[in-house]
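Case study 2.
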Amino acid sequence: MTETVRMTTAEAMVKYLIAQKSVQIDGSVAPLFGGVYGIFGHGNVTSLGHFLERNKEALPTYRGQAEEGMALAGVAYAKATRRRQIMIATSSVGPGATNMVTAAGVAHSNRLPLLLISGDTFTSRLPDPVLQQVEHFGDPTQTVNDSFRAVSRYWDRIVRPAQLTSSLPHAIQTMLDPADCGPAFIGLPQDIAAEAWDFPVSFFTETVHDIARPRPDVRQLDEAIKVLRSAEKPLIVAGGGVHYSLAEPELAAFAAAHNIPVVETVAGKACLEWDHEMYGGPIGVTGGTSANALAGEADVVLAVGTRLLDFTTGSWTVFKNESVKIIALNTARFDATKRQSLPLVGDAKATLVELGAGLGDYRASDDWSTTMATEVAQHNAYIDKIAAKESTSDSGLPTYAQVVGAIDRLADEKTFALAAAGGFPGEVNNGWRAKQLNSFDCEYGYSCMGYETSGGWGAAMAMPDKDVVVFCGDGSYMMLNSDIYSSVLHGHKMIVIVCDNGGFAVINRLQTGMGGEPYNNLIKDNPTVVNPVAVDFAKHAEAMGALSETVETIDDLEAAFGRARAADRTYVISLVTDAYSWTEGGSYWEVGIPEVSEFDSVLEARARIDEGKVDQRR
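Prediction:
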């Protein structure tokens, strides 16, 4: 007879999650779930919250300030641990749940694990309509939690306690699967969370998980080797999958052995150190001239662990060679078969070794690597110029490039840079020179404003030995900043640099660059604004318990950064920056421009967009 133990659904869930362990980067074993970000309400406090309190040592709960923020912190935590550990975010029914949908989209787009547990309405329906319930007249089974279906890799609503025994293992295996990795959602109705059942004791046995390393099909591997051997100008595009596979050493060795330049996506940045002999720079719309020039000449592209976002491919225009062949090495079949790519479905670390063995003594020509070195030198000279201390902006104000350059020059082995959305992705992708592997996180899969401070909190929690430096624009700061308070409360120090350029400046750049009039992006360009009050970001951060200061010059910033590194808690540095100066050198990007307009500037922009599509891969 099966040995059982009687407990509620909520208690069984907590006990099962605690029993899950995972193999870490260094080979040690640690809890799979690093903890819970929780905001309690009537949907989760009386059952799930009760048992989290009963198990607070084994599964600690961190109090968030906004559901979206705490779930975003979980996304950054997973990235920092390279998908070896996962955070849980729990909310009540209703707005608490739907607040987390955006964060689920971030996790889904970036292929990162996050376990979301939300309260739900009563399966009995006897108390309906309950507080915060959204009623669907024609479908009483539907609740707001169904909104997570579009942004979850795994979705379930528990309507019987016994369902946990199949649902939780499937959720965990989805989050740990290198191909299907993404967020898992569990809806927990209030009556079911409190209902008891006789669970098998074996369900709570400690389990140690490790990430699978699928090998490629032999025929796919042979074909990839054959195509690479024929290449005169091969190029590697390294994506985030290199990090998650722990394949950085294999990538460096493969590139050096076969004399193949490596360019990086935003997610793949810091796969190589910036001064590695085969490093060709960042590619795409937020990339630089060197990588995009190499992409334009390449005849064979080995795309490793990248989903080939439009910002990587320049809306599929950067690979200008009409006969270029793309080999897509990816654990996900979906990503490996995009745009007539030759699929190579497998783990990056293992497959690069097998590819290298198959290539033998093949090496691209020295002329090709010389071309790379020339392009990289020119790009570096440009970055040196715009990142220098002396301002090059018309206003005389510091630029984003200067801010990034100043911190980059002061960075050491403990520095971890983090950014997202707005103007910073293009600036850090070019100006941040990775001196250490895995020292960078820029959320650009979903381009989620507000990720910065919440992500900084999650990264600081995951890497307590690092100086997590958050680059944040004023627009993102105003959108979501409360996790500065969270980081102070819980003792997870980060350094936040807030660049105030008067609104959503990079979208203003897009608006005016595509022929439009400046409107509703910079605060000064909105005629409905009657009180254009300047925000004192340093004082605001100070009110949340952070240490802070406002600076004016790059020299002041460098001095303040030294004080921030020596501080014992989160430190916010604010400065006013130029709204019109940006790093140049990116690729074409397709956006929708009106075909018909009374403005010549719009029609000219439309003509440029249409002209650029000539190089678009079909």
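The chain has a mean pLDDT of 97.
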